[in-house]
Amino acid sequence: MRTITRQAMDWLAGAATDPRDCKRQWQGETGAAVLACGQFWDVLSVPENLGMPTLDALLRIPQAPGPALADTASRRVAFFLPPDSAGRWIGSGIRYAGKGAWIAVPAPHRAAGRLRWLVPPDGTGALFVPAAVELALQLALGRLAAQAGATRRCPTCTAPTEGPRMRSGGRPG
Description:
With 173 residues, the protein is α+β, with helices and mostly antiparallel strands. Strand 3 (68-71) and strand 4 (76-81) form a beta hairpin. The strands form two sheets. It has a five-stranded antiparallel β-sheet with strand order 5-2-4-3-7. A two-stranded antiparallel ribbon has the order 1-6. Helix content is 31%, strand content 20%. Mean pLDDT is 87; it is low at 163-173. The chain starts with a helix and ends in a 23-residue tail after the last helix. The protein has helices at residues 3-13, 19-27, 48-59, 130-150; strands at 32-36, 42-47, 68-71, 76-81, 95-97, 102-106, 115-119.
């Protein structure tokens, strides 16, 4: 096993109540282990349609990324951030897991069922910078809003429509 992978496994397993058992679970049937948040990292989970453009923006900045995990069944993306006892992330569909919370993760070098690493941990303890994640989320939300505004919808059935928008009174807008 490569040294980086071993370092990443040790770093992740360090958050388990029993690191050896954690590594056995990664080799087991599910391929995932449940790890504690709040000591080495906290986790910000967002809907996939917001998380993927956010990750894209984060990977474009000249800073080492932290781990990012996708849950394909729930269609969510999780960003690993430094622990923050006062972490307050508010928004529709946004979930924050800090001290007292747990997260299921596969081994750094593989996927497990519905869980796969978009950016695997590198073993150095690198995490996403919260301010950068916040800015990337805002950029992604702006793009999503612009795309939603570009899609014209029927006000009655919400089906996509073509042609000019109508103002009140039935006049083209």
